[in-house]
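Sequence only, no structure available. Ideas?
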Amino acid sequence: IKSREMIEQAALAATNRRLEHLRTVLDKLQAAAGDDENRWHELLPALTPSERGRLLENLWRLTPDRSVAEAIVAVAGTFVLWIDPRQPQLIMRRVELGDDLGGLRSVGYAPERNALLIGAAQGVWLIGADDGRILARFDTPDAAPQRTGYNEAVIHDGVLYATHSGLGAHRWNVDEPSDHAALLEPESGRPRTVRAVTAAPDGRIFFAADARVYFYDPQNDELVDHTSPGEVVYALSVEGPSLYVTTRSGKLLASPLNEPARWTALHRAREPIESITVRRWNDLAEIVVPSDAQGVVGVYGDEGVVVKLLEAPSPIRRAWACDDAIVGLSERRGELWIMSADAPERVAREAPIARDVGHSIQDACIVARAKSA
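Reply:
I predicted one. C-alpha coordinates follow.
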Protein backbone atom coordinates (compact mmCIF):
# COMPACT_ATOMS: atom_id res chain seq x y z
CA ILE A 1 0.00 0.00 0.00
CA LYS A 2 2.81 2.39 0.92
CA SER A 3 4.53 1.68 -2.40
CA ARG A 4 1.30 2.41 -4.29
CA GLU A 5 0.86 5.70 -2.39
CA MET A 6 4.40 6.75 -3.29
CA ILE A 7 3.76 5.99 -6.98
CA GLU A 8 0.52 8.00 -6.93
CA GLN A 9 2.20 10.96 -5.20
CA ALA A 10 5.03 10.94 -7.75
CA ALA A 11 2.50 10.82 -10.60
CA LEU A 12 0.55 13.76 -9.15
CA ALA A 13 3.73 15.79 -8.76
CA ALA A 14 4.73 15.03 -12.35
CA THR A 15 1.30 16.10 -13.62
CA ASN A 16 1.48 19.38 -11.68
CA ARG A 17 4.95 20.12 -13.11
CA ARG A 18 3.70 19.38 -16.61
CA LEU A 19 0.69 21.69 -16.24
CA GLU A 20 2.90 24.47 -14.90
CA HIS A 21 5.24 23.96 -17.88
CA LEU A 22 2.26 24.40 -20.21
CA ARG A 23 0.59 27.20 -18.26
CA THR A 24 1.45 29.95 -20.74
CA VAL A 25 0.29 27.80 -23.65
CA LEU A 26 -3.03 26.95 -21.99
CA ASP A 27 -3.63 30.58 -21.02
CA LYS A 28 -3.03 31.60 -24.61
CA LEU A 29 -5.49 29.00 -25.88
CA GLN A 30 -8.11 30.06 -23.37
CA ALA A 31 -7.83 33.65 -24.57
CA ALA A 32 -8.10 32.56 -28.20
CA ALA A 33 -11.04 30.23 -27.64
CA GLY A 34 -13.66 32.81 -26.74
CA ASP A 35 -16.35 30.13 -26.56
CA ASP A 36 -16.68 26.37 -26.33
CA GLU A 37 -17.36 25.87 -30.04
CA ASN A 38 -13.72 26.17 -31.10
CA ARG A 39 -11.78 22.98 -31.69
CA TRP A 40 -8.07 22.22 -31.46
CA HIS A 41 -7.44 22.75 -35.17
CA GLU A 42 -8.95 26.24 -35.00
CA LEU A 43 -7.04 27.18 -31.85
CA LEU A 44 -3.55 26.03 -32.81
CA PRO A 45 -2.80 29.02 -35.11
CA ALA A 46 -2.85 31.19 -31.98
CA LEU A 47 0.36 29.48 -30.83
CA THR A 48 3.95 29.81 -31.98
CA PRO A 49 5.51 26.70 -33.61
CA SER A 50 7.37 25.95 -30.38
CA GLU A 51 4.22 26.28 -28.26
CA ARG A 52 2.28 24.15 -30.73
CA GLY A 53 4.85 21.36 -30.40
CA ARG A 54 4.78 21.52 -26.60
CA LEU A 55 0.99 21.29 -26.56
CA LEU A 56 0.69 18.43 -29.05
CA GLU A 57 3.41 16.47 -27.26
CA ASN A 58 1.31 16.55 -24.09
CA LEU A 59 -2.20 16.56 -25.56
CA TRP A 60 -2.81 12.92 -24.65
CA ARG A 61 -2.00 13.74 -21.02
CA LEU A 62 -4.30 16.76 -20.84
CA THR A 63 -7.47 15.54 -22.56
CA PRO A 64 -10.08 13.35 -20.82
CA ASP A 65 -9.55 9.61 -21.27
CA ARG A 66 -12.32 7.87 -23.20
CA SER A 67 -10.69 4.48 -22.75
CA VAL A 68 -8.01 3.25 -20.40
CA ALA A 69 -5.47 0.44 -20.54
CA GLU A 70 -6.44 -2.46 -18.30
CA ALA A 71 -3.61 -4.71 -19.45
CA ILE A 72 -0.75 -5.01 -21.91
CA VAL A 73 -0.74 -8.45 -23.54
CA ALA A 74 2.33 -9.93 -25.22
CA VAL A 75 3.16 -13.20 -26.97
CA ALA A 76 6.55 -14.84 -26.49
CA GLY A 77 7.35 -18.43 -27.38
CA THR A 78 4.17 -20.41 -26.69
CA PHE A 79 3.10 -18.03 -23.91
CA VAL A 80 0.49 -15.27 -23.76
CA LEU A 81 1.32 -12.83 -20.95
CA TRP A 82 -0.75 -10.10 -19.27
CA ILE A 83 1.19 -7.10 -17.90
CA ASP A 84 -0.04 -4.44 -15.47
CA PRO A 85 0.39 -1.13 -17.38
CA ARG A 86 1.09 0.75 -14.14
CA GLN A 87 3.46 -1.85 -12.70
CA PRO A 88 5.13 -3.31 -15.82
CA GLN A 89 7.46 -5.53 -13.82
CA LEU A 90 4.44 -7.64 -12.78
CA ILE A 91 3.16 -10.45 -15.01
CA MET A 92 -0.48 -10.66 -13.92
CA ARG A 93 -1.27 -13.85 -15.85
CA ARG A 94 0.40 -16.27 -18.23
CA VAL A 95 -1.26 -18.85 -20.46
CA GLU A 96 0.54 -21.43 -22.57
CA LEU A 97 -1.28 -22.30 -25.79
CA GLY A 98 1.01 -25.09 -26.93
CA ASP A 99 1.93 -25.76 -30.53
CA ASP A 100 -1.30 -27.21 -31.97
CA LEU A 101 -1.39 -24.34 -34.49
CA GLY A 102 2.37 -23.80 -34.52
CA GLY A 103 4.43 -20.96 -33.07
CA LEU A 104 2.77 -17.74 -31.93
CA ARG A 105 3.32 -14.68 -34.09
CA SER A 106 0.86 -11.89 -33.24
CA VAL A 107 -1.78 -10.69 -30.80
CA GLY A 108 -4.64 -8.22 -31.14
CA TYR A 109 -7.60 -7.17 -29.02
CA ALA A 110 -11.18 -7.60 -30.30
CA PRO A 111 -13.24 -5.33 -28.02
CA GLU A 112 -16.60 -6.43 -29.44
CA ARG A 113 -15.88 -9.95 -28.16
CA ASN A 114 -13.64 -8.95 -25.23
CA ALA A 115 -11.22 -11.46 -26.70
CA LEU A 116 -7.66 -11.76 -27.95
CA LEU A 117 -6.77 -12.86 -31.47
CA ILE A 118 -3.53 -14.86 -31.36
CA GLY A 119 -1.95 -15.39 -34.77
CA ALA A 120 -0.05 -18.69 -35.01
CA ALA A 121 1.81 -20.48 -37.80
CA GLN A 122 -1.15 -22.46 -39.17
CA GLY A 123 -4.16 -20.64 -37.76
CA VAL A 124 -5.59 -18.18 -35.25
CA TRP A 125 -6.61 -18.67 -31.61
CA LEU A 126 -9.48 -16.75 -30.01
CA ILE A 127 -9.08 -16.56 -26.23
CA GLY A 128 -10.74 -14.58 -23.44
CA ALA A 129 -9.13 -11.21 -22.77
CA ASP A 130 -9.71 -11.53 -19.02
CA ASP A 131 -8.86 -15.16 -18.30
CA GLY A 132 -7.09 -16.58 -21.37
CA ARG A 133 -9.73 -19.29 -21.79
CA ILE A 134 -9.73 -20.76 -25.32
CA LEU A 135 -12.94 -19.69 -27.05
CA ALA A 136 -12.25 -20.98 -30.57
CA ARG A 137 -9.50 -21.99 -32.98
CA PHE A 138 -9.39 -21.22 -36.67
CA ASP A 139 -7.34 -23.67 -38.71
CA THR A 140 -6.09 -22.99 -42.22
CA PRO A 141 -7.22 -26.03 -44.24
CA ASP A 142 -4.43 -28.10 -45.79
CA ALA A 143 -1.74 -25.72 -44.50
CA ALA A 144 1.77 -27.16 -44.47
CA PRO A 145 4.05 -26.32 -41.51
CA GLN A 146 5.05 -22.65 -41.70
CA ARG A 147 8.18 -20.81 -40.59
CA THR A 148 6.20 -17.61 -39.98
CA GLY A 149 2.65 -16.99 -38.74
CA TYR A 150 -0.44 -14.86 -39.08
CA ASN A 151 0.77 -11.27 -38.90
CA GLU A 152 -2.52 -9.66 -37.89
CA ALA A 153 -6.19 -10.51 -37.40
CA VAL A 154 -9.40 -8.53 -36.88
CA ILE A 155 -13.05 -9.35 -36.33
CA HIS A 156 -15.71 -7.37 -38.18
CA ASP A 157 -19.43 -8.13 -38.40
CA GLY A 158 -18.98 -11.67 -37.09
CA VAL A 159 -16.16 -12.57 -39.47
CA LEU A 160 -12.47 -13.03 -38.63
CA TYR A 161 -9.96 -11.78 -41.20
CA ALA A 162 -6.23 -12.56 -40.98
CA THR A 163 -3.07 -12.14 -43.07
CA HIS A 164 -0.07 -14.46 -43.39
CA SER A 165 2.96 -13.97 -45.66
CA GLY A 166 3.13 -17.68 -46.48
CA LEU A 167 -0.59 -18.51 -46.61
CA GLY A 168 -2.14 -15.22 -47.79
CA ALA A 169 -5.36 -13.55 -46.59
CA HIS A 170 -8.19 -15.64 -45.12
CA ARG A 171 -11.58 -15.26 -43.48
CA TRP A 172 -13.61 -17.41 -41.07
CA ASN A 173 -17.10 -17.19 -39.58
CA VAL A 174 -16.40 -16.54 -35.89
CA ASP A 175 -19.34 -18.66 -34.72
CA GLU A 176 -18.67 -21.45 -37.25
CA PRO A 177 -14.88 -21.76 -37.66
CA SER A 178 -15.29 -24.43 -40.35
CA ASP A 179 -16.90 -21.77 -42.58
CA HIS A 180 -13.64 -20.60 -44.18
CA ALA A 181 -12.50 -18.99 -47.43
CA ALA A 182 -9.18 -17.77 -48.81
CA LEU A 183 -9.29 -14.19 -50.10
CA LEU A 184 -5.79 -14.22 -51.59
CA GLU A 185 -3.24 -17.04 -51.76
CA PRO A 186 0.40 -16.77 -52.89
CA GLU A 187 1.29 -18.43 -56.18
CA SER A 188 4.87 -19.25 -57.21
CA GLY A 189 6.15 -17.31 -54.21
CA ARG A 190 4.21 -14.13 -55.01
CA PRO A 191 3.28 -12.07 -53.14
CA ARG A 192 6.19 -12.58 -50.75
CA THR A 193 4.58 -10.67 -47.87
CA VAL A 194 0.94 -10.34 -46.83
CA ARG A 195 0.73 -8.03 -43.84
CA ALA A 196 -1.70 -5.93 -41.85
CA VAL A 197 -5.49 -6.01 -41.94
CA THR A 198 -8.04 -3.43 -40.81
CA ALA A 199 -11.76 -2.82 -41.16
CA ALA A 200 -12.94 0.50 -42.59
CA PRO A 201 -16.10 2.14 -41.20
CA ASP A 202 -17.99 1.24 -44.39
CA GLY A 203 -17.27 -2.47 -43.86
CA ARG A 204 -14.48 -2.93 -46.39
CA ILE A 205 -11.50 -4.96 -45.19
CA PHE A 206 -8.10 -3.52 -46.18
CA PHE A 207 -4.84 -5.47 -46.21
CA ALA A 208 -1.41 -5.26 -47.85
CA ALA A 209 0.40 -7.70 -50.15
CA ASP A 210 3.95 -6.66 -51.05
CA ALA A 211 3.58 -3.11 -52.44
CA ARG A 212 -0.18 -3.36 -53.12
CA VAL A 213 -3.12 -2.44 -50.90
CA TYR A 214 -6.27 -4.50 -51.46
CA PHE A 215 -9.72 -4.33 -50.00
CA TYR A 216 -12.31 -7.06 -49.70
CA ASP A 217 -15.96 -6.02 -50.07
CA PRO A 218 -18.08 -8.48 -48.03
CA GLN A 219 -21.32 -7.17 -49.53
CA ASN A 220 -20.30 -8.22 -53.04
CA ASP A 221 -17.77 -10.92 -52.07
CA GLU A 222 -15.22 -9.03 -54.19
CA LEU A 223 -11.46 -8.48 -53.83
CA VAL A 224 -10.28 -5.14 -55.26
CA ASP A 225 -6.71 -3.98 -55.99
CA HIS A 226 -7.04 -0.52 -54.43
CA THR A 227 -3.67 1.24 -54.70
CA SER A 228 0.11 1.08 -54.23
CA PRO A 229 2.53 3.49 -52.54
CA GLY A 230 5.32 2.11 -54.73
CA GLU A 231 7.09 0.02 -52.08
CA VAL A 232 6.42 -2.82 -49.67
CA VAL A 233 3.77 -1.96 -47.07
CA TYR A 234 4.34 -2.99 -43.45
CA ALA A 235 1.27 -1.58 -41.67
CA LEU A 236 -1.93 0.27 -42.51
CA SER A 237 -4.89 1.97 -40.89
CA VAL A 238 -8.10 3.63 -42.06
CA GLU A 239 -9.20 6.73 -40.15
CA GLY A 240 -12.01 8.95 -41.42
CA PRO A 241 -11.53 9.63 -45.14
CA SER A 242 -7.85 8.62 -45.16
CA LEU A 243 -5.76 5.49 -45.60
CA TYR A 244 -2.44 5.54 -43.73
CA VAL A 245 0.39 3.13 -44.57
CA THR A 246 3.94 2.58 -43.38
CA THR A 247 6.66 1.11 -45.58
CA ARG A 248 9.87 -0.88 -45.67
CA SER A 249 11.96 2.25 -46.26
CA GLY A 250 10.53 3.95 -43.15
CA LYS A 251 7.88 6.20 -44.68
CA LEU A 252 4.52 7.13 -43.21
CA LEU A 253 2.15 7.99 -46.07
CA ALA A 254 -1.48 9.09 -46.34
CA SER A 255 -3.93 8.70 -49.21
CA PRO A 256 -7.58 9.81 -49.51
CA LEU A 257 -9.81 6.76 -49.84
CA ASN A 258 -11.58 8.36 -52.79
CA GLU A 259 -8.28 9.33 -54.49
CA PRO A 260 -6.15 6.19 -54.09
CA ALA A 261 -3.41 7.35 -56.47
CA ARG A 262 -2.62 10.49 -54.42
CA TRP A 263 -0.06 10.05 -51.64
CA THR A 264 1.28 12.52 -49.08
CA ALA A 265 4.45 11.86 -47.06
CA LEU A 266 3.95 12.61 -43.35
CA HIS A 267 7.09 11.24 -41.70
CA ARG A 268 10.32 9.40 -42.48
CA ALA A 269 12.28 7.08 -40.17
CA ARG A 270 15.62 5.40 -40.81
CA GLU A 271 14.26 1.86 -40.46
CA PRO A 272 11.03 0.13 -41.56
CA ILE A 273 7.95 1.30 -39.65
CA GLU A 274 6.22 -1.90 -38.55
CA SER A 275 3.08 -0.59 -36.83
CA ILE A 276 0.61 2.27 -36.85
CA THR A 277 -2.02 3.46 -34.35
CA VAL A 278 -4.33 6.43 -34.79
CA ARG A 279 -5.60 8.35 -31.76
CA ARG A 280 -8.15 11.13 -32.17
CA TRP A 281 -8.51 14.20 -29.99
CA ASN A 282 -11.74 15.84 -31.20
CA ASP A 283 -10.80 17.16 -34.66
CA LEU A 284 -7.10 16.23 -34.48
CA ALA A 285 -5.78 12.84 -35.60
CA GLU A 286 -2.50 11.77 -34.00
CA ILE A 287 -0.71 8.95 -35.84
CA VAL A 288 1.47 7.02 -33.41
CA VAL A 289 4.41 5.16 -34.98
CA PRO A 290 7.77 3.77 -33.88
CA SER A 291 10.71 5.84 -35.08
CA ASP A 292 13.73 3.61 -34.29
CA ALA A 293 16.26 5.51 -32.15
CA GLN A 294 13.78 8.38 -31.68
CA GLY A 295 11.50 6.08 -29.69
CA VAL A 296 7.78 6.56 -30.39
CA VAL A 297 6.50 9.68 -32.12
CA GLY A 298 3.11 11.25 -32.75
CA VAL A 299 2.55 12.65 -36.23
CA TYR A 300 -0.02 15.40 -36.78
CA GLY A 301 -0.16 15.37 -40.57
CA ASP A 302 -2.59 18.25 -41.05
CA GLU A 303 -0.52 20.45 -38.74
CA GLY A 304 2.89 19.41 -40.11
CA VAL A 305 4.08 18.56 -36.59
CA VAL A 306 5.97 15.49 -35.32
CA VAL A 307 6.36 15.15 -31.54
CA LYS A 308 8.28 12.66 -29.43
CA LEU A 309 5.97 10.69 -27.14
CA LEU A 310 8.19 8.00 -25.62
CA GLU A 311 11.93 7.59 -25.15
CA ALA A 312 13.66 4.26 -24.56
CA PRO A 313 17.29 3.14 -24.13
CA SER A 314 17.04 0.99 -27.29
CA PRO A 315 15.51 1.60 -30.75
CA ILE A 316 11.78 0.86 -31.05
CA ARG A 317 10.43 -1.31 -33.89
CA ARG A 318 6.69 -1.54 -33.00
CA ALA A 319 4.40 0.71 -30.96
CA TRP A 320 0.84 0.78 -29.65
CA ALA A 321 -1.21 3.46 -27.90
CA CYS A 322 -4.55 4.17 -26.27
CA ASP A 323 -5.81 7.27 -24.46
CA ASP A 324 -3.69 6.77 -21.35
CA ALA A 325 -0.78 4.50 -22.34
CA ILE A 326 1.96 4.03 -24.94
CA VAL A 327 3.88 0.78 -25.49
CA GLY A 328 7.05 0.18 -27.51
CA LEU A 329 8.78 -3.07 -28.52
CA SER A 330 12.56 -2.89 -28.85
CA GLU A 331 14.31 -3.53 -32.15
CA ARG A 332 15.69 -6.89 -31.01
CA ARG A 333 12.35 -7.95 -29.46
CA GLY A 334 13.99 -8.30 -26.06
CA GLU A 335 12.32 -5.42 -24.20
CA LEU A 336 8.81 -4.03 -23.91
CA TRP A 337 8.65 -0.39 -22.79
CA ILE A 338 5.46 0.96 -21.22
CA MET A 339 4.52 4.52 -20.32
CA SER A 340 1.30 5.76 -18.74
CA ALA A 341 -0.06 9.28 -19.01
CA ASP A 342 0.97 10.15 -15.45
CA ALA A 343 4.62 9.17 -16.01
CA PRO A 344 7.17 11.98 -15.56
CA GLU A 345 8.34 13.49 -18.85
CA ARG A 346 8.71 10.80 -21.58
CA VAL A 347 10.23 8.10 -19.38
CA ALA A 348 9.06 4.53 -20.05
CA ARG A 349 9.43 1.51 -17.78
CA GLU A 350 10.51 -1.94 -18.91
CA ALA A 351 8.41 -5.09 -18.70
CA PRO A 352 11.12 -7.80 -18.47
CA ILE A 353 9.14 -10.42 -20.39
CA ALA A 354 11.90 -11.90 -22.53
CA ARG A 355 14.15 -12.47 -19.50
CA ASP A 356 11.31 -13.99 -17.48
CA VAL A 357 10.07 -16.48 -20.10
CA GLY A 358 13.28 -17.06 -22.04
CA HIS A 359 11.79 -16.15 -25.43
CA SER A 360 11.83 -13.03 -27.59
CA ILE A 361 8.64 -10.97 -27.75
CA GLN A 362 6.81 -11.48 -31.03
CA ASP A 363 4.02 -8.94 -30.60
CA ALA A 364 1.91 -7.03 -28.08
CA CYS A 365 -1.37 -5.17 -27.81
CA ILE A 366 -3.29 -3.00 -25.34
CA VAL A 367 -6.54 -4.19 -23.77
CA ALA A 368 -8.32 -0.83 -23.47
CA ARG A 369 -11.85 -0.37 -22.22
CA ALA A 370 -14.23 2.57 -21.91
CA LYS A 371 -13.51 4.57 -18.80
CA SER A 372 -16.21 4.19 -16.17
CA ALA A 373 -17.82 7.34 -14.83
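The chain has one domain: 58-370.
Hope that gets you unstuck.
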